[in-house]
């Protein structure tokens, strides 16, 4: 393509033509590595052509592009802390050596080869430690020596190793010669650079393995749930102290779900505490809905934090988390058969009907408009017939909030305005998102708030959703007064109350 566009023949190309070709590749968006592959292919081609067909080679002085060197990914302070802490294991005195090595590496900035090359007499402890610091002599490349101070954490770890671990390692040494090395292996000789690197590598993986193990336990919990639901019979019982006789199927389902969810949470907490940065961020309070710029910043921050969290370079955590979340998400699917039978009309009906008096909850006392002041709120239920008992199922559908505002503050159409009485308006207390109780009322803003998921409804605009996950306004109950002046319902709810369900028409 390049040759035809520039009316050139491959036998007559010059170095300038090759440079022009290289520039065109860069302009087309190819990376430096892709351009280098093209240059290498041309070099091989013209080398062959020069040998076999006596073609002039224009590639002799053309050099490959230098690729940009990527900086290594640095560990965060949290990752370093977790790495050092993981090296010290309870009941394992060898781990004291590993802990001292990591503290010394971090505290001095030395190379692994320099740390394993330290001798006992290279550590200098001053008599007056209040005015002078402990130092260590390091031998770098070319046998160049330098004196480096040791911090308190590294010195404490080194002291513990010298007192508790090194004497037991010295006893394992064969022969009578004295080993001068500071750090010894299990045979009582100087620790090799390869062994020290393995200590660093194991410590780096330890924190990741702890998180991954928690996620794997979560996955086992999900397997227990699914197994119990499918294979354990409902008539199997066993005895548990304190709890008594327990149904095996129910116990397995409950315990499996508890393990699955609990260890996902524990894994996430352990991940955040040990492997994620712990920088504190302060943000000012603002209106419920964020501005578009803030929402874009949030998405960018999430992507950045995901990169800092190291998902890309921690495949073990990523795979175990995916397994745990996948099985935890699969668990509800096996329970789908318990969704039947269809609910018919039970979810669409309430106890409210025309002429039903509004009574207080608790107290079952009828209400007159004069009982409510502007800005006040009352929880209401329908009045029961004599001898009738109220069930929890009825309360879950019939609960109503009665709110009084100034009539001029309403922004309603004519029909909805006729459902109010002297500034008193009634809405279902059951949130249209997840069925929670809409329990908070802000007098200044005239907003109803669901405290569970922060859905917010505007009372003056027929409980229109102004924030949160709710999909529709709270159902309004039309009210008026009866001949005795008590508040009553004009009719029942004109739509189902509570959250969405499959059979709902709207």
Automatic annotation (TrEMBL):
InterPro entries in UniProt: CB, DNA_brk_join_enz, Integrase-like_cat_sf, Integrase_catalytic, Integrase_recombinase_N, Integrase_SAM-like_N, QcrA_N, Rieske_2Fe-2S
Any one annotated GO CC term: membrane
GO MF entry, a single one: DNA binding
Record protein name field: Rieske iron-sulfur protein
Keyword match Metal-binding: yes
Domain Rieske residue range list: 397-488
Spans traversing the lipid bilayer: 211-231, 251-269
GO BP annotations, alphabetical order: DNA integration; DNA recombination
Keyword Electron transport part of the UniProt annotation: yes
Subcellular compartments: Membrane
Keywords: 2Fe-2S, DNA integration, DNA recombination, DNA-binding, Electron transport, Iron, Iron-sulfur, Membrane, Metal-binding, Respiratory chain, Transmembrane, Transmembrane helix, Transport
Classification via PANTHER family: PHAGE INTEGRASE-RELATED, TYROSINE RECOMBINASE XERC
PROSITE patterns in the record: CB (PS51900), RIESKE (PS51296), TYR_RECOMBINASE (PS51898)
Tyr recombinase domain mapped to chain residues: 70-207
């Amino acid at each position: 393509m390049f040759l035809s566009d520039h009316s050139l023949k491959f036998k007559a190309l010059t170095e300038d033509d090759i440079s022009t070709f290289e520039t065109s590749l860069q302009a087309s968006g190819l990376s430096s590595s892709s351009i280098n592959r093209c240059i290498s292919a041309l070099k091989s081609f013209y080398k062959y052509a020069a040998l076999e067909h006596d073609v002039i080679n224009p590639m002799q002085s053309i050099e490959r592009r230098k690729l940009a060197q990527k900086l290594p990914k640095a560990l965060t302070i949290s990752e370093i802390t977790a790495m050092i802490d993981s090296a010290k294991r309870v009941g394992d005195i060898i781990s004291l050596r590993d802990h001292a090595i990591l503290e010394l590496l971090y505290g001095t900035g030395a190379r692994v080869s320099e740390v394993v090359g330290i001798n006992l007499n290279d550590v200098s402890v001053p008599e007056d430690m209040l005015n002078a610091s402990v130092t260590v002599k390091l031998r770098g490349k070319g046998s160049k020596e330098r004196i480096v101070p040791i911090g308190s954490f590294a010195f404490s770890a080194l002291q513990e190793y010298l007192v508790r671990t090194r004497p037991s390692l010295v006893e394992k040494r064969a022969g009578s010669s004295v080993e001068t090395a500071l750090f010894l292996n299990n045979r009582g000789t100087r620790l090799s650079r390869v062994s020290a690197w393995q200590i660093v590598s194991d410590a780096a993986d330890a924190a990741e393995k702890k998180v991954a193990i928690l996620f794997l336990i979560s996955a086992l919990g999900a397997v227990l749930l699914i197994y119990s639901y499918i294979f354990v019979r409902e008539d199997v019982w066993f005895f548990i102290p304190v709890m008594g006789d327990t149904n095996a199927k129910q116990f397995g389902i409950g315990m499996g779900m508890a393990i699955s969810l609990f260890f996902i949470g524990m894994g996430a907490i352990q991940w955040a505490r040990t492997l994620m940065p712990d920088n504190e961020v302060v943000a000012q309070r603002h209106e419920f809905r964020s501005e578009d710029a803030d929402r874009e910043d949030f998405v960018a921050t999430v992507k950045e934090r995901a990169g800092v969290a190291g998902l890309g370079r921690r495949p073990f955590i990523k795979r175990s988390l995916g397994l745990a979340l996948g099985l935890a998400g699969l668990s509800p699917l096996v329970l789908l058969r318990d969704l039947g039978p269809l609910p018919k009309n039970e979810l669409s009906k309430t106890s409210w009907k025309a002429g039903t008096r509004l009574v207080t909850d608790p107290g079952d006392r009828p209400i007159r408009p004069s009982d409510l002041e502007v800005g006040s709120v009352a929880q209401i239920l329908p009045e029961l017939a004599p001898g009738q008992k109220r069930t929890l199922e009825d309360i879950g559908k019939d609960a109503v909030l009665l709110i009084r505002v100034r009539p001029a503050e309403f922004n309603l159409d004519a029909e909805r305005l006729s459902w109010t009485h002297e500034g008193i308006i009634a809405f279902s207390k059951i949130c249209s998102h997840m069925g929670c109780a809409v329990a908070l009322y802000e007098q200044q803003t005239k907003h109803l708030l669901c405290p569970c998921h922060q859905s917010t409804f505007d009372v003056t605009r027929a409980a229109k959703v102004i924030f949160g996950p709710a999909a529709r306004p709270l159902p309004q109950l039309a009210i008026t007064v009866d001949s005795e002046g008590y508040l009553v319902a004009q009719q029942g709810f004109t739509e189902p109350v509570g959250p969405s369900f499959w059979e709902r028409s709207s």
